[in-house]
Design goal:
alpha+beta, single chain, 4-stranded antiparallel β-sheet, 94 residues, binds zinc ion
Length: 94
């Protein structure tokens, strides 16, 4: 899988995505994931204190892209494509 960080940043802006769920905390059920602020900066919200003492840390769009690019399950990828509004084939120009 190969999509660039820039694609995610653009998609988030177009779809006004403010939160990208990653997984639910197995202890309290809180939805852990990336949050995007109004200026387009991305943070990782660990949400609860179950596994981490630092709840919100700044991340880069490369991290968001990496999470997508590491997927191998077609169903998961299809769901992510729908979430991000990706309709065209993935482009890899690196
Ligand atoms: Zn928790």
């Amino acid at each position: 899988m190969c999509r660039s960080a820039e694609e995610f940043k653009t998609a988030a802006k177009e779809k006004k995505i403010e939160k990208v769920p990653s997984h639910d905390c197995s202890i309290c059920g809180y939805t852990v994931g990336y949050i995007i602020d109004v200026s387009g900066e991305v943070y990782f919200d660990a949400g609860c204190d179950c596994t981490s003492t630092v709840s919100i840390t700044q991340r880069s769009w490369e991290d968001v892209a990496e999470q997508y690019n590491m997927q191998t399950n077609p169903e998961v990828i299809a769901r992510m494509d729908e979430f991000w509004g990706f309709t065209e084939e993935e482009l890899c120009n690196t």
